[in-house]
Design brief:
The strands form two sheets. A five-stranded mixed beta sheet has the order 3-5-4-2-6. The radius of gyration is 15 Å and the shape is globular. It is of the alpha/beta class and 156 residues long. It has helices at residues 3-12, 20-27, and strands at residues 15-16, 77-84, 104-105, 116-120, 136-137, 149-150, 154-155.
Length: 156
Amino acid sequence: MTWFQAQVACRNSRKRLPSNAEWQAAVIGTPDPGSDNGTTDCNTTAAIGWPEDPVATGSRSTCVSSGGAFDMVGNREEFVADWLPRSTDCSAWQGAVSPTGDQQCLVGAATAGEPGVLLRGGSFNFVSTSAGPLTVYGLHGPSIWGGEIGFRCAVG
């Protein structure tokens, strides 16, 4: 599902994609993942296979934020409403750059071409050290889609 399709799906349910700030507020208190024990921890490894291995929302009991939002880390990267200049080079990322080790790809912003959409939280198909509450990607345009990308809708 692309960013555009996610936006329409939320609108059809009389909701909307959350802003980046709203998503960041909702993830507060979600544990930064370490290893994935396959039952209660955040889904940060493709234990069954790739690319279609998200888990049912709420099935990982310890992957919950202080506000009660489940599976915001790992499982699926999530679209948020915000766009920005598209990042052009994420190869420079290293775990030591972020204090939490969460992958943050907002480097080399393009000044021309397709804008970038923000993807938050990381996905099960990345190693445990790159998914986390501060994980953010600005590498892709709004037409990106894939089995590791999802979204959630906000009220209002």
